Amino acid sequence: MTLAGVQHNGKPGYPWLVFLHGFSGDCREWQAVGESLRDYPRLYLDLPGHGESAGVSVAGFNDLSNLLASTLLSYNILNYWLVGYSLGGRIAMFQACQQPKGLSGIVVEGGHPGLRDAGSREARLASDRRWATRFRAEPLPDVFADWYQQPVFASLTDAQRGELIALRSRNSGADLAAMLEATSLGVQPDLRSALSACSAPFYYLYGERDEKFAAIAAELNAERHVIPHAGHNAHRENPGAVAASLAQILRLRTKDTL
């Protein structure tokens, strides 16, 4: 079993950019950013429960890590960067901690490295289970109308919020619920120590209006890039600035290997 994805070729010798979207997104989420990096071969994946991978399910992060590795092998991707937003960023960090061969580096936008104590994890898992129950039982526009009222999305305008609700409501509620439970922050280990021991370069992006993840970024042993005029969903709110940060990172890291 592998994940569905959309791939685009780049120049010979350049590392692949493997893009991982956030919860309720799909392979299209990163394409506005990725298409400005046409020298690099690019793979935009649909995560389990999303897009063309809607029928794929995983039991947890270890299962998802193995599935991602199998998917990359199926595309013969042996030299690559992982670029992930939110849930996709958490997956990228977890994958990097497995020290996989061929990983050149990770770029994480607004991804949480993990909760520090059991009480916080239990509370988060209970909250995600309540959301999952709603995703299974209620019309998705109603659930997402409340989802995007969470504090982390406070920087969204009413128009942006409405656009996201319409876009995300094309998903299957049951499939989203299963993925939410399998990859809840409540079941994710705290990755801070493991990330510090990783050999792969680690870059962290966050919007200047995203106070929560600005504070999280300060805890990590990563090079930080602040995206202006953006909140939590920086690559959607300011794709040009995110693309520029990615281009800078990749230019510095790949110039000596080409």
Automatic annotation (TrEMBL):
<comment type="subunit">
    <text>Monomer.</text>
</comment>
<dbReference type="InterPro" id="IPR000073">
    <property type="entry name" value="AB_hydrolase_1"/>
</dbReference>
<keyword id="KW-0456">Lyase</keyword>
<comment type="function">
    <text>Catalyzes a proton abstraction reaction that results in 2,5-elimination of pyruvate from 2-succinyl-5-enolpyruvyl-6-hydroxy-3-cyclohexene-1-carboxylate (SEPHCHC) and the formation of 2-succinyl-6-hydroxy-2,4-cyclohexadiene-1-carboxylate (SHCHC).</text>
</comment>
<dbReference type="GO" id="GO:0070205">
    <property type="term" value="F:2-succinyl-6-hydroxy-2,4-cyclohexadiene-1-carboxylate synthase activity"/>
</dbReference>
<dbReference type="InterPro" id="IPR022485">
    <property type="entry name" value="SHCHC_synthase_MenH"/>
</dbReference>
<protein>
    <recommendedName>
        <fullName>2-succinyl-6-hydroxy-2,4-cyclohexadiene-1-carboxylate synthase</fullName>
        <ecNumber>4.2.99.20</ecNumber>
    </recommendedName>
</protein>
<feature type="domain" description="AB hydrolase-1">
    <location>
        <begin position="17"/>
        <end position="244"/>
    </location>
</feature>
<keyword id="KW-0474">Menaquinone biosynthesis</keyword>
<comment type="similarity">
    <text>Belongs to the AB hydrolase superfamily. MenH family.</text>
</comment>
<dbReference type="InterPro" id="IPR029058">
    <property type="entry name" value="AB_hydrolase_fold"/>
</dbReference>
<comment type="pathway">
    <text>Quinol/quinone metabolism; 1,4-dihydroxy-2-naphthoate biosynthesis; 1,4-dihydroxy-2-naphthoate from chorismate: step 3/7.</text>
</comment>
<comment type="pathway">
    <text>Quinol/quinone metabolism; menaquinone biosynthesis.</text>
</comment>
<dbReference type="Pfam" id="PF12697">
    <property type="entry name" value="Abhydrolase_6"/>
</dbReference>
